[in-house]
Amino acid sequence: MYGVKQNNVTKPVVKKGQPDDSFKIQPLPLPSGNYPFHLDLPERGNRSTTSLAFNIVGDTGGIKSPTFQQQIAEQMGLQTKDSSYPTEFLFHLGDIVYHFGEREQYEKQFFKPYASYPAPIYAIPGNHDADVNLNNPIPYKSLDAFKAVFCDNRLNDHYFSDKVARKNQHQPNVYWTLNTELVTIIGLYSNVPKFGYISEEQQDWFVKELIRAGELQEERAIIVCLHHAPYTADTNHGSSLAMIAVLEASFAKAGVLPDAVFSGHVHNYQRFSKAYEGRKTVPFIVCGSGGFDELHVLATKDDLQFTQENPNFENVQLENFSLEQHGFLKVILEKNAGKFTMTCEYYTMEHEVEIPATTATLYDSFTLDLKRN
Question: Is residue 260 within 8 Å of 282, Cβ to Cβ?
């Protein structure tokens, strides 16, 4: 484990004396599609019916040092050509651009780095994507640029992308569900405040989506994605008690647990396991090391600003982490010969200055048995 210290915490932490920044909450934009905001993965003639692979990454915006995100974009592009499990799309966990969601930032921080990425890119917004720069000479609303790139029903180029070939995505909303034959991916939008915010309207939708996904879980895995990390041991943010409350209340009301929860916001990699007594153990994975130059460290047991003593953390354990390298995830679903599994692989990059970069290195891997018996 990179950056490990003798007295690192072994559980999530919460920051003491958290400030109230609820004044930063932005109103939800109007959806671009119809309720319940579903999008089916487009059909491909050569797609395997027994396996599916895709990438997950967050916090890619390279406003200061774009080399890191370019390296990762390149390596994820190479995985679309993998002979065994080619990745079919990228699911972005938010903070595509920094530090505000301005249209001027998308060319440098999104369109150019992913110009040669050959697969679809789906996304949920991060807090920086949703924040508004009040000093911008051209007034705009929260998520205007994000919606133009990811939630436009028309298939066209972007007038602020300098004619880069990538077309807009047609997601139905800023929170939405991606349906595939092997996995249901529910994407939440957790707004601008440091520890996130999810409206009652969205939470009601989330419960209904969990129930629907639960009805299909014999055939499909269930993944939940959100930007703000529910569980984290870092010293820049600390865990979001607000996101924990929303998730746990929704799981309980729906009577459904996901197979994995992915988040960003924190600029490193952390893998937690949470044991639900009598049910199953769910991995909660932080993958916010996708390109922003600043990486975050873990708290130590003697850090008086943070504590791991919290009733929310009783059944949660830190399993692995990487602090000093950027990286990304590859998720592989496989169903055949009487088995149904989900394998998550985390790849790291050496901090080379050249493009193309050195090959990504497998740092962490685990496999879940999804057989419901």
Answer: yes
Beta bridge partners of 346: 329, 364
Query: Which among 64, 74, 63 is positioned nearest to 97, based on CA atoms?
Result: 63
Structural tokens at position 107: 């060319």
- Residues 265 and 288: beta-carbon distance below 8 Å: yes
What would the DSSP string read from start to end of 53-91?
EEEEE-----SS-HHHHHHHHHHHHHHTT-SSS-EEEEE
Strand, coil or helix: what is 211? helix
Q: For 135, list phi and psi in degrees, rounded to 5.
A: -90, 0
273: burial class by Cβ within 10 Å (0-12, 13-18, 19+)?
A: middle
- DSSP summary character for residue 235: S
Could you give the CA distance from residue 98 to residue 266 in angstroms, rounded to a whole number? 14
232-279 confidence digits (pLDDT tens): 999 999 999 999 999 999 999 999 999 999 999 999 999 999 999 988
Q: What element of type H or E holds 310?
A: none
Q: Residue 359 and residue 71: Cα distance in Å, rounded?
A: 9
Say which amino acid occupies 92: H
Structure tokens at 140: 């705009």
Mean pLDDT, residues 184-204: 98
Where helices occur in 161-258 by DSSP H, the ranges are 200-215, 241-254
- How far apart CA 170 and CA 147 sit, in angstroms, is 9
pLDDT at 116: 87
Instruction: Please check whether residue 95 is in contact with residue 61, taking contact to mean a CB–CB distance below 8 angstroms.
Output: yes
Distance of CA 92 to the CA centre of its chain: 5
The closest of 125, 145, 109, 146 to 263, measured between CA atoms, is: 125
- Give the C-alpha separation, 258 to 225, whole Å: 10
pLDDT at 67 over 50: yes
Helix (H) or strand (E) holding 129: helix 127-130
